[in-house]
Design brief:
Blueprint lengths: L9 H18 L6 H8 L3 H7 L4 H4 L3 H13 L7 H14 L11 H9 L2 H23 L8 H26 L4 H21 L6 H8 L6
Helix pairs in contact: 1-2, 5-8, 6-10, 8-9, 9-10
Pfam families: TetR_N
Keywords: DNA-binding, Transcription, Transcription regulation
Protein name: HTH tetR-type domain-containing protein
Amino acid sequence: MANKGDRGGSKTRARIAQIATDLFLERGFDDVTIAEIAREAGVSRVTVFSHFDRKEDLLLDRIPSALETIRNALRTRPDELSVTEQMLRLAIAMAEERHPLSGLAEGIAPFVRVVRDAPTLIARLREFAYEAEAAIAAELDADPRFTGDAPLTAALIITCYRTVTVATVRQLVATGGTSLDALAAQHMIRLEQAFRALQHGIDPPTAHAQGRVANPEEAA
C-alpha cells in the first residue's frame, strides 16, 4: 500500500482520519460514506483518496507508520541482539506506549467493535499481517548478518505477535476496557513467553529428533 501521508500535509490527513473515525464509531463502518467524510472534513473526495488508498485505511490509518517502524527496528538492530530479541523489544515498546496495534490504546473497545462488525476491516487487518510478514522477510533477506530462513522467521514472529494481541483485544472487549494496566502487564508477559519460545524452542529436542535432523537420509 502506498503511503500518501505527505500529499497535502500530514495535518490534513490526520484530520480526515479523525473525522472518519468519529463517524465510524458513531454509526458503524458500513453506514458512513466517503462523501459524508469529505463533507465533514471540508475537503473533496479526491482529497480523501489522495491521502488514503481505500475506505478501510481511514480507520486503520496507523498501518503505514507501523510498517515503517518494523523496518526501522530491523535496520537498526544492534549486532548483539538477535532478530527475535529486537522484535520482542519493539512489541514491548508498542505495548508501553499503548499503540493502537498493540490492542492496548485507551478507548479501543468501541474501535474493536466497529472492526468486528465490518468484514472488510477484518480483511484489511489480515492483509496488514501479510504486509508486515513480507516487510520482515525482506529486511532479513537484505541483512548479511542473518543466515536463517527469512520467510519462516517472519511468519513465526507475526504469528507470535498476532496471537498474543488477539487474546488481549478479546479480553479488553469482554471487560469493557477496564483494568487496562493489569491487562497490559499480562500482555507483556505473554509477549515475553511467546518470543522466548520462538528463540529457544517450545520443547527440548529429543535424541531421536536430533538423530533425524542430523541424518535425514536415514528416513529415506
